[in-house]
């Protein structure tokens, strides 16, 4: 029997995280605003808690202090003995886990929205961690339909080795919200407006769901991660080529074998190899240079969600 | 400040500096590339020294370690006695002043070109000290004529009574290239390539000058700062809103009194309350949030630049 991950009970507790990366400002300022005036995120019968996850990084307007908070919510890090010697983010991860988790617990948060920006031209993006999560597929379908004609893409990071232990993963229904392009340390009004709308539609969906509204079976197109591609590097590990102008800003668009991919500092074009078309995302994301990721290859597929019964 | 009004000898000692801010990647990668392969910087009548201005900030991919290097070239920082507690950039500024200056002395480099990126939509911006810098003005004009499609705008930074504090002010003549928009920490191929081409043309211009080319007088339009406007803030000093969508990305375009400039998080628009039209630049530059600047107000003005003296053609240097 396939497991259905349908929410059977109403959703009770929702968290909205900002500042998981301290220099991704849209989430920081939306959460700070909602902490002052939370009217716009309230829905009847639902507890919605805005929360700054990495306040020290936010204060310094940097991605992280010691290590990337959005990569360390695995059992090993969450289980380490608390001590002042632990990296700041590991200590912080444990605090967040105690406040909002554990997954599926009595008082735990059902849904966590984690707000992010990217320097890549990805527009409005929803990040899904589990392809069988029917509740989230329905939610994402609702958000995409409500935002149209503004495009909203779904990035599926389910993968045996490439999936990472996100801050939001401590909830039963983790939702990544990623809007770009926006430079680190910059707050753009247009990007703020887009992220604000995504949250509004998400909360409206939860409210309709709790009220018993019917959501017929639906399908959404998603982009599933295949592999990450590093920059070509020289013998010293320095970057030897940049994202080709033809690929720059072309997130979600098909890249065919033979299409330009990188341009060396000497002016030579390096094309995509292999035999299949891929859909690049996170093309030229500033924070991924150190993670050795120039872009991620995805494949397009359709996910179906049953109705609630 | 005794920068000579106009060079009367060939320019022999030239430097190009990148990584003055360690997260402005076009200059970082160009400087690192030229340190390995300097050939493309050489010309017949002079050679150019590439310099990675802020190595520690570059290694950390940050704007600076302790203090903004491009604010550190004042006589107060450069000439005060070194102490062990000096910020990294103060020590580094003194080193660069030894290498490329000393500022305001006869031993300073003839020309320094400093490479920058901005998150603002400033396109190709040429930053020089003032309209009195005849050599720099001719250079800017040359770049504008060579690349009409780039619409190079000239920004003249010197404010009356203020001492210069930027890196290229240590040389007898200086210019900064400010290309955007590009996020910090990102290397875009199109901007990198444009920066590289512009550097080559700057060096070509110096070669033309050294070889005795005539550069007649001309009229030029430029922008100079008249003030700055900060973001709207709460009592605690946090942001209360951000740059309005109608101002965002409109660098060098006229801003009229009454036009919206900020959008508050609570939804209202804040309008520009100045008394006259200004031309905003550095609109929503990431590095300026901490300096309390949402945009720089400039005025546009036109001036005449006199002809440059024509040199006798320069022989190739022995070195």
UniProtKB/TrEMBL annotation, chain A:
Keyword field contains DNA repair: no
Residues forming coiled coils: none
Domain Succinylglutamate desuccinylase/Aspartoacylase catalytic: 11-206
EC number: 3.5.1.15
Listed GO CC annotations: cytosol; nucleus
Binding site for substrate: 70-71, 164-168
Cellular localisation: Cytoplasm; Nucleus
InterPro entries per the UniProt record, alphabetical: AspA/AstE_fam, Aspartoacylase, AstE_AspA_cat, Aste_AspA_hybrid_dom
Primary enzyme class: hydrolase
Protein residues bound to Zn(2+): 21, 24, 116
UniProt keyword Cytoplasm, yes or no: yes
Transmembrane segments: none
Binding positions for N-acetyl-L-aspartate per the UniProt entry: 63, 178, 288
UniProt cofactor(s): Zn(2+)
Cofactor note: Binds 1 zinc ion per subunit.
Keyword terms of this UniProt record: Cytoplasm, Hydrolase, Metal-binding, Nucleus, Zinc
Entry function: Catalyzes the deacetylation of N-acetylaspartic acid (NAA) to produce acetate and L-aspartate. NAA occurs in high concentration in brain and its hydrolysis NAA plays a significant part in the maintenance of intact white matter. In other tissues it acts as a scavenger of NAA from body fluids.
Entry similarity comment: Belongs to the AspA/AstE family. Aspartoacylase subfamily.
HAMAP family (alphabetical): Aspartoacylase (MF_00704)
PANTHER family: ASPARTOACYLASE
UniProt protein name: Aspartoacylase
Organism, scientific name: Rhinopithecus bieti
Automatic annotation (TrEMBL), chain B:
Catalytic reaction annotation: an N-acyl-aromatic L-alpha-amino acid + H2O = an aromatic L-alpha-amino acid + a carboxylate; an N-acetyl-L-cysteine-S-conjugate + H2O = an S-substituted L-cysteine + acetate
Gene Ontology MF terms: aminoacylase activity; hydrolase activity, acting on ester bonds; identical protein binding; metal ion binding
Cofactor: Zn(2+)
Pfam families, per the entry: AstE_AspA_cat, AstE_AspA_hybrid
Membrane topology type: Peripheral membrane protein
Residues of the active site: 178
EC number: 3.5.1.114
Entry annotated with the keyword Cytoplasm: yes
Keywords attached to this entry: Cell membrane, Cytoplasm, Hydrolase, Membrane, Metal-binding, Zinc
Annotated Gene Ontology cellular component terms: apical plasma membrane; cytosol
The record's free-text note on cofactor binding: Binds 1 zinc ion per subunit.
Compartment list: Apical cell membrane; Cytoplasm
Domain AstE/AspA barrel-sandwich hybrid: 219-300
InterPro entries recorded: AspA/AstE_fam (IPR050178), Aspartoacylase (IPR016708), AstE_AspA_cat (IPR055438), Aste_AspA_hybrid_dom (IPR007036)
Principal location listed in the UniProt entry: membrane
Residue numbers binding Zn(2+): 21, 24, 116
Succinylglutamate desuccinylase/Aspartoacylase catalytic domain boundaries: 11-206
The keyword Kinase belongs to this UniProt entry's keyword annotation: no
Family that this chain belongs to: Belongs to the AspA/AstE family. Aspartoacylase subfamily.
HAMAP family xrefs: Aspartoacylase
UniProt-listed NCBIfam families: PRK02259.1
Protein name: N-acyl-aromatic-L-amino acid amidohydrolase
Species this protein is from: Rhinopithecus bieti (Black snub-nosed monkey)
Gene this chain is encoded by: ACY3
